[in-house]
Amino acid sequence: MTGTNPRVAPDLVREHAPKLADLTDDVLFADVWERSELSPRERSLITVAALIALGRDAQLKGHMGRALQNGVSREELAEVATHLAFYAGWPAGMSAVNVLAEVGE
């Protein structure tokens, strides 16, 4: 970790691709996620929607958890999954609900 930024990248990434872990921590989360043009809540909604649409369930679980921490409700996440089912495909929406069921409050 560089600076005082918290570590966000998983240990597995840090072990096998340390530069990717550093970029995750120092650029993505310490810079991009901290920009004032969008709130953390808005960034979470956008990120969750993109991950659902792309079928990136491995990252979706963590970002759904982050969304809950950023003030997005479980009901709103369920609505995002429902809405995206029509735009990204039924399996994408259904998979997102399965991920949501695994995410703690």
From TrEMBL:
Domain Carboxymuconolactone decarboxylase-like: start-end pairs: 18-102
Source taxon at top rank: Bacteria
Name of the protein this chain belongs to: Carboxymuconolactone decarboxylase family protein
Organism: Brachybacterium hainanense
Upper taxonomic lineage: Bacteria, Bacillati, Actinomycetota, Actinomycetes, Micrococcales
